[in-house]
Amino acid sequence: MRKIVWISFISALVIVNLLAFAADRFGGVYIAMPYRLAVVLSITLISCVFGGAWVLMNQADEEVPSNQKPQQPQPEKRDP
Fold it and tell me: What is the rounded distance in angstroms from the CA atom of residue 44 to the CA atom of residue 42?
């Protein structure tokens, strides 16, 4: 789970700063650093939620219910 957090944080940081640079360079719009940080943290939080759900879904495929007992062969019934 830690890998998911770090990967999403670093990728969000890079993408948001590149988009802010492009907006400033080509559009003349400056995006202040607090807004950039808010977007980076929100992207990180959302990707952590989806990453955690992905990990839980993969773990659910491997689980076996604890209330199952080993199946024993049933004796055959004889008609009198």
Answer: 5
